[in-house]
Amino acid sequence: MVSRSMRPSKLTWAHLPFSLFGPSLLSSSNLPIYLPIPSPKIIINGSISAYSPRPNHFPYTMSKHAIAGLTKCLPLDGRQHDIACSQLDIGNAQTAISRPGGMLQPNGPIMVEAKYYDVEYADQAVVYMASLPLCVNVLNQTLMAMTTPFVGRG
Description:
Layout: H1 10-14, H2 16-34, E1 41-47, H3 58-78, E2 84-91, E3 93-94, E4 103-104, E5 110-111, E6 117-118, H4 120-131, E7 140-144
Helix pairs in contact: 2-3
């Protein structure tokens, strides 16, 4: 039996349809729109959670694994039309949903993590990915605060 503390919150489950189906449906339904555009680029919001999850966040991590798969499938399916796809994995950006009070760690305690960075840096990463010449693509990029416990987590 799974203890109550190990169960994801209802809010965590509630975002799953948006995180999982939103990008999939938008990408596939918009492919015809991209066809007349010379070498279009699709940039998808991933997460470092797909590579190193947080405790009790498996619905979110599942959705981000799906996004990683979508990032690999879209350029494959769109290759004949020169459609590129990139994934930007963002960690610890300062947003309205940031949790400055700390996050549950794999070894049990709640810890205040690395200093959050301005979300403007994520904007700059998207601009960089989109501005590359049409003959190249950044498949995956991870953006995180320098001391984020992603490296070595899990």
